[in-house]
Amino acid sequence: MELLQTLEEFGLNKNESVVYLALLQMGPSAVLAIARHTALKRPTVYLILDSLIEKGLVVVVPKEKKKLFLALPPSRLEEEMERKTNLIRQVMPELSALYRSETAKPSIKFFESNEGMFEVYREITKRSDIKEIMTFFSPEAIPKKFEQVYELLIKLFKERKVRAREIISAPPPRHFYLEQLKHLSNYHARLAPKEFKFSSDTIIYGNKIAIFSFKKHFALIIESDDVVNSFKSLFELAWQSAENFRP
Questions:
Q1: Tens digit of pLDDT for each residue in 174-214?
Q2: Domains held by the chain: number
Q3: What's the rounded Cα separation, in Å, for the pair 75 and 25?
Q4: What range defines the domain where residue 142 resides?
């Protein structure tokens, strides 16, 4: 069973693996003998043999009025693997160039409706690779219908210990979200100067940015290392000028 699985991982299908293993055991054999040994129909065996010959694993041995088929030594598998590896190595620079050019393009996803916006918040708080999030937001800008989002974020910071830094504009005196987080060592908040107001919620996480517009009911996710690094620099600049804040 292990031999069959290995040959299939090499690139042979199940029937090709069965016939090749049979020929290794039988030596030069006619189609009828192969069919009996493998319990495959003769038309099927002919097709499989043609495929194995094309792959360089089987050869035809003429004998009087009938043809015999012979499996080449298993070392042919190793030779074929080396051949394929060398082919890939030759084109690897071109493949890598194509990959870099494609991944350099930013990915932008647009979500309409309140449910679409909720889905983005869920995606952010469920990701296991997030170590830190940075946000610009104002509690006053987030409608009451979105208050369950606070619970998702509180769980993220409390249970998974994800680090958070938030720059807040115009916070209410005692907001339940801020009260829940004020004693956490992994949560830090600062106040933006009074003249700056955030009418949307902006979250930087990993190599993505999520922007939420509550007035227009949409969320936008931008995935781009360059764009995210620029936003992170802007956040750090704003963080330095913001006022330390503990609810």
A1: 788 888 888 899 999 998 888 888 888 999 998 899 999 99
A2: 2
A3: 15
A4: 107-245
User: Could you give the 3-state DSSP secondary structure of residue 157?
Assistant: helix
In this structure, the dihedral spanned by the alpha carbons of residues 212, 217, 221 and 222, taken in order and rounded to 10 degrees, is: -80
pLDDT in tens, 44-81: 999 999 998 988 888 888 777 788 899 888 888 888 88
**Are 184 and 132 part of one and the same domain?**
yes
Burial of 117 (0-12, 13-18, 19+ CB in 10 A): buried
Residue 113 lies in a domain: yes
Whole-prediction pTM = 0.58
Which of residues 74, 99, 123 is at a domain's end? Answer: 74
Residues 70 and 138 in one domain: no
Beta strands in the chain (DSSP E): 58-63, 66-71, 107-112, 132-137, 163-168, 187-191, 201-205, 208-213, 218-223, 243-245
CA distance 120 to 139: 18
